[in-house]
Design brief:
This protein is mainly α. It has 2 domains: 34 residues, no CATH class; 90 residues. 63% of the residues lie in helices and 3% in strands. Strands 1-2 form a two-stranded antiparallel sheet. A hairpin with a 5-residue loop joins strand 1 and strand 2. The relative contact order is 0.08.
Length: 142
């Protein structure tokens, strides 16, 4: 769909004319001197921050999907039950679900940082039915 059909031309023109009348120059300028106040530098910064947050959220969501599958396979649960386990572990340890998932995934792939060892042990201790939830990287070498 072309941009013209998505933008109310009269509203844009009114805003540009009002912008020019007050002499504001914080927007993007045109060669004919008419300032277009469609996008201010502050809005650009806000949008860039939002895009960065959304990218991080997409990666986090994907990782949590992988971790949910690992937990489901490890404990013989459905994905919904595995997600409930992750949420319960998060609540029981007072740690965000994404951090619980990161530690589980890092342990599985052999990238568990030394500062996460304590949380990894706590997650194992709080696993349902006393099962060991975390598989360490050494399981891949057997």
């Amino acid at each position: 769909m072309p941009l013209d059909s998505q933008v109310d031309g009269a509203a844009v023109r009114d805003r540009v004319e009002a912008h020019d009348r007050v002499g504001a120059h914080d927007g993007v300028g045109c060669s004919d001197g008419m300032a277009l106040h469609w996008v201010s530098p502050n809005l650009i910064a806000e949008l860039e921050a939002t895009v960065a947050q959304l990218r991080e959220a997409v990666v986090s969501r994907q990782q949590l999907g992988v971790v949910t599958g690992l937990v489901a396979a490890r404990l013989g649960l459905t994905p919904e039950e595995a997600w409930a386990v992750l949420v319960r572990l998060s609540q029981d340890t007072n740690v965000k679900v994404r951090d619980v998932g990161r530690v589980i995934l890092d342990a599985y792939t052999g990238r568990l940082a030394s500062e996460d060892e304590g949380l990894a042990g706590l997650l194992d201790a709080k696993s349902p039915d006393g099962s060991r939830l975390l598989l360490r990287h050494d399981h891949l070498q057997r």
